[in-house]
């Protein structure tokens, strides 16, 4: 006579949940790794324009990052990522395309639009091969048909959704990747050093949490940031005689 452990099923379910959560974490680590070839290393996210105008210093760098998160990246890219994730999860391809179109339309400068679609299409291509899934295939078809421009934040949202990464975790990871890329550009522009860069990243954590919370509450009508000085710096950067970064 065999004895069945009444807790065996619960233990198996818990192990399965843990495996799923761990796999989602591994996908996040892969997609946000600085070695992931999305082209993020070619972007300064407007920082080079500020440096060229002598409008940022090592002391004001953390404040600039916080402002860009709150008023630029949060209302635009982070919000678009959340909406794209939800649309892909629900199979609402029209909403996905509309989110992508609206995000693209909020980019006032040509170089910002170009940077968003270049990195987005690269992410879409690599994620399609490495992550896979119907959502990425459907989104790739929309981009190929020119019904969606292929912005990075939307591509990231679809990739995370396709891998089963929860939306809050997805947008948090992508915002941290933006911060990492931003301070990486600051290093190359000699606005900080490696030790201070880590201090800046850690100090951004409360702002990231704030921005994530706000992005989760917005709907499509609220998508779009307001950073006029950053837009002006981007416009100056596009016409600069020498540039280290695409944006």
Defining key terms:
Urease accessory protein UreF, 247 residues, mainly alpha
In short:
With 247 residues, this protein is mainly alpha-helical. The protein contains eleven helices and no strands.
Question: What would you say this structure looks like, in words?
Answer:
The radius of gyration is 19 Å and the shape is globular. The longest helix is centred in the first third of the chain and has 30 residues, at 61-90. The protein starts with 7 loop residues before the first helix and ends in a 9-residue tail after the last helix. α3 (61-90) packs parallel to α10 and α5 runs parallel beside α7. The chain is built from eleven helices and no strands. It has a single domain, classed as Orthogonal Bundle (Urease accessory protein UreF), CATH 1.10.4190.10. The mean pLDDT is 90. By secondary structure, it is mainly alpha-helical. The protein has helices at 8-32, 47-52, 61-90, 93-105, 110-130, 134-144, 152-162, 167-188, 194-203, 205-217, 228-238. The relative contact order is 0.20.
């Amino acid at each position: 006579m065999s004895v069945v452990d009444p807790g065996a099923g619960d233990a198996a379910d818990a192990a399965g949940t843990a495996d799923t959560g761990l796999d989602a974490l591994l996908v996040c680590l892969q997609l946000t790794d600085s070695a992931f070839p999305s082209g993020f290393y070619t972007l300064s996210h407007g920082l080079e324009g500020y440096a060229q105008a002598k409008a940022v210093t090592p002391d004001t760098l953390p404040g600039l990052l916080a402002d860009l998160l709150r008023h630029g990246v949060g209302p635009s890219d982070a919000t678009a990522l959340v909406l794209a994730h939800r649309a892909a999860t629900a199979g609402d391809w029209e909403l996905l395309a509309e989110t992508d179109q609206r995000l693209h339309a909020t980019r006032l400068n040509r170089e910002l639009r170009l940077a968003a679609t270049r990195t987005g299409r690269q992410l879409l291509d690599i994620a399609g091969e490495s992550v896979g899934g119907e959502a990425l295939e459907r989104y790739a078809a929309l981009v190929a048909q020119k019904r969606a421009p292929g912005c990075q934040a939307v591509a990231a949202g679809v990739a995370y959704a396709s891998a089963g990464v929860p939306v809050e975790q997805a947008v948090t990871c992508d915002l941290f990747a933006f911060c990492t890329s931003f301070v990486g550009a600051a290093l190359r522009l000699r606005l900080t050093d490696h030790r201070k860069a880590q201090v800046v990243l850690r100090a951004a954590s409360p702002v990231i949490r704030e921005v994530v919370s706000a992005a989760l509450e917005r709907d499509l009508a609220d998508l779009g940031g307001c950073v006029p000085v950053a837009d002006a710096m981007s416009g100056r950067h596009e016409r600069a005689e020498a540039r280290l970064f695409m944006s």
